[in-house]
Amino acid sequence: xxxxxxxxxxxxxxxxxxxxxxxxxxxxxxxxxxxxxxxxxxxxxxxxxxxxxxxxxxxxxxxxxxxxxxxxxxxxxxxxxxxxxxxxxxxxxxxxxxxxxxxxxxxxxxxxxxxxxxxxxxxxxxxxxxxxxxxxxxxxxxxxxxxxxxxxxxxxxxxxxxxxxxxxxxxxxxxxxxxxxxxxxxxxxxxxxxxxxxxxxxxxxxxxxxxxxxxxxxxxxxxxxxxxxxxxxxxxxxxxxxxxxxxxxxxxxxxxxxxxxxxxxxxxxxxxxxxxxxxxxxxxxxxxxxxxxxxxxxxxxxxxxxxxxxxxxxxxxxxxxxxxxxxxxxxxxxxxxxxxxxxxxxxxxxxxxxxxxxxxxxxxxxxxxxxxxxxxxxxxxxxxxxxxxxxxxxxxxxxxxxxxxxxxxxxxxxxxxxxxxxxxxxxxxxxxxxxxxxxxxxxxxxxxxxxxxxxxxxxxxxxxxxxxxxxxxxxxxxxxxxxxxxxxxxxxxxxxxxxxxxxxxxxxxxxxxxxxxxxxxxxxxxxxxxxxxxxxxxxxxxxxxxxxxxxxxxxxxxxxxxxxxxxxxxxxxxxxxxxxxxxxxxxxxxxxxxxxxxxxx
Length: 601
What we know:
It is a single chain. The chain is α/β, with parallel strands linked by helices. It folds into four domains: 16-20 and 486-600, CATH 2.40.50.460; 66-268, inorganic pyrophosphatase (n-terminal core) (Alpha-Beta Complex), CATH 3.90.1640; 279-353, no CATH class; 366-477, Roll (Diaminopimelate Epimerase, Chain A, domain 1), CATH 3.10.310.30. The chain has 19 helices and 18 strands. It has helices spanning 24-32, 37-44, 54-58, 74-87, 99-115, 139-146, 165-173, 215-232, 247-256, 265-278, 284-293, 302-319, 323-329, 334-365, 367-371, 389-400, 428-438, 462-477, 499-506; strands at 16-19, 91-95, 123-127, 154-158, 177-181, 197-199, 377-380, 404-409, 415-421, 443-448, 452-458, 485-488, 490-491, 520-532, 538-544, 551-556, 573-585, 588-600. The strands form four sheets. The chain has a five-stranded parallel β-sheet, sandwiched between helices. A five-stranded mixed β-sheet has the order 7-8-9-11-10. Strand 17 and strand 18 (588-600) form a beta hairpin. The chain starts with 15 loop residues before the first strand and ends with a strand.
């Protein structure tokens, strides 16, 4: 197998394999629930502290979803929306262009039209263009709203609005009541004063028990409260349909937005219920993606949403007008859904090509920072695409184990637009707040949450910003030095690498952020190696236990991407970190190892 010279290995540390620390309280509760030792250990490595609902985590169900009335301002928002519904007012639905925003839009639109009887002609769908407008309630989007002959009477935002006070003021001055529904952290100055109502579980004084819910879930809860208000006012029958059928959208948005699936019984209930709805394949959008992926005899799981459907929807908003993604989600026929999905799929292919070039350039540019042992990495790609910068930041963080920011030119030639991604233990939005306190002139604006954030930077401030970001990360870490880490749940014996073990692990689905699929370790003999894939970047392995008695196949995706090298060959013994996967081919089932990392020993 040919290997090219490496441009990454000289500057990237190999990951450390670390066993997950075990929470004794979880172990004790798991024993009381009668869970098998392996599942107990997996749970105890993911759930921290002593305040959690283990039964709700293990067995997700709708009963674990807290009432929407616990959200601060939810009743006020619901009453205003109900008033608009009853009076036939013009309603604007303003959402972000990513998966969370698009699914929020679908939830709001279908609730208003199908459940509450609002005419489609009375609804204004408002989604900004990532490149031309930027994120959220942007200046460009507000300008287009105010230029319309007929203005909406109210606007409901979703997945945005918390940091947009300046633009909300313009809408309020035009006589528009803006109801903000969001989940991003609020700016230091607090709740936007110009919002008619502010529904955000992260705000102070909010009693909702889970601040990690996605923006689409906040939208769903608000619409559920609107239904209750309309029933109380006699405008809907007591037995009118509930909103549970819309949880398929909420599941997709929750997974794609990478909110926590760890200690959140609510998020786990939403994803589990939503997947059961999706797997009915009773909507054109779900049938069309199943057809495209050729999964006619398979059910979707959280990984399908996060790695197959989510990227295709995101690609449209990253590269072009986001409305094709909304039309896909709301398609009423298979033909419509397939038409729009074909557009999204092509966008995703284009995105992959752009991403590959940007990742290569980014790793070259961060070498000096890595050489100086920066803990927070910042890179400016002069020829980069702003719509793909978040993915590139994710790749850098994944490979280096360090928080990163990728910046590209903005529409304003004096500005750069950026996306930030973080690691466990570093709240990236709080770090940006710290940078802002160092020098308030560095950033034009910023916002986000624990794991991801967006920002606009003054171009002339790049060098000082990069140093300030690194220093703020170091302060947040105190004495810790970051490097790539692979967290290990257990060392499996050869006899345990089986379909039975895989089936046992599946009982803990759904997996996602802060509740990753279990990762195991073991030592194997390399029987065969082969580069595979269109670009020969994946590595296929045939591995056996050290006695040569049991062989299994493994696949290491992107092992050879970007001129990376491996340090072993056929006949070597390797230590591996891997997940279990079930492979089906022509009616035969076999266990395959999904290699996270492997190294010679």
